[in-house]
Amino acid sequence: MQATVPVSSSLHTTSTAADPTALSTQTNNMALVPAPPSETPLFAEVDMCSDSSATTVRATVIQASTVFYDTPATLDKAERFLAEAAGYGSQLVVFPEAFIGGYPRGSSFGATIGSRTAKGREDFRKYHASAIDVPGPEVDRLAAMAGRYKVYLVMGVIEREGYTLYCTVLFFDSQGHYMGKHRKVMPTAVERIVWGFGDGSTIPVFGTPIGKIGAAICWENRMPLLRTAMYGKGIEIYCAPTADSRDTWQATMTHIALEGGCFVLSANQFCRRKDYPPPPEYVFLGVEEDPTPDSVVCAGGSVIISPLGTVLAGPNYDGEALISADLDLGEIARAKFDFDVVGHYSRPEVLSLTVRDHPTNAVMFTSASEKGEASRK
């Protein structure tokens, strides 16, 4: 059963699809990243029951727009949505791609092959100023928010490292600890002008009391080998922050849920032209007609899908919303009875994947390693 009801200034779509008869017993923990230790039990307020087969997780994806060029206001907005989700009982909350820092839809940054414009350089300066350092004060605030509302938080951000930007997802546990990050490994098309490339060192899957959680961003979800690496780490709750609101995106999300035998949580922004700065400060390119302030420039489509390919909540194209569902973790084992992509349905003697999961750095200083070696002698 699915219903849409007003919640404060947003819509809240929810589905209750919990079956307490079974729990995934998957044991593939290859390269699994443990959640940071805590002095107090995680989710003390949630009765996990002595019978672990009764485990369900209430998850929410947030469909909302960035306050463009205003990171403090965007953080305030994130906290309002997080408080609403926590009030509804959510244990896991997923925000869209580039929510903190903004998705620069329609912008060319004044770049053509062989030249850049002065305005495009200034656009990049402002975009760079809206990004966040990891670690940094904004990360500390997000961690505090996760701890305050006792939720696992998956947040899309624009990460700044020096003068290079990355489209990144940050992970926080319900006790207010920053767990780690995933950097988008392959920005799409013109995104490559403004974002750097992630590497194999930031493709984590975190083992938590509510399941094994990881993320891939937008069109990197269409990369079969990246998905396979995440399946190899035993992902159970697959988060897919995106900027794609087309109908074809829904087919991708359903396929991943079926292929991976995992829950898929896709969060997208819902944006109107007025959510971006007005012209001439911010100009939308690549559209047939100049959008009016109320023109929808990203229609959302956020969705939650079960390991058997059932749509549990969404897709929502109506506006900013909280989209929630109860995830019966037993559904993972039921799905993998048919198809376990890196288990009984794999043929490693025929097909295999090697993941280079070390950091790739342009500059390495041998003096640092030599000092470390000397201190051990």
UniProtKB/TrEMBL annotation:
PANTHER family: CN HYDROLASE DOMAIN-CONTAINING PROTEIN, NITRILASE
Keywords: Hydrolase
Active site (UniProt): 97
EC number(s) reported in the record: 3.5.5.4, 4.2.1.65
CN hydrolase domain: residues covered: 57-329
Family label: Belongs to the carbon-nitrogen hydrolase superfamily. Nitrilase family.
Any GO BP: detoxification of nitrogen compound
Entries under PROSITE patterns matching the protein: CN_HYDROLASE, NITRIL_CHT_1, NITRIL_CHT_2
Recorded catalytic activity of this chain's protein: L-asparagine = 3-cyano-L-alanine + H2O; 3-cyano-L-alanine + 2 H2O = L-aspartate + NH4(+)
Pfam families reported for this sequence: CN_hydrolase
InterPro entries (alphabetical): C-N_Hydrolase (IPR003010), Nitrilase/CN_hydratase_CS (IPR000132), Nitrilases_CHs (IPR044149)
Region (Disordered): 1-20
Single GO MF descriptor: nitrile hydratase activity
Protein's name in the database: 3-cyanoalanine hydratase
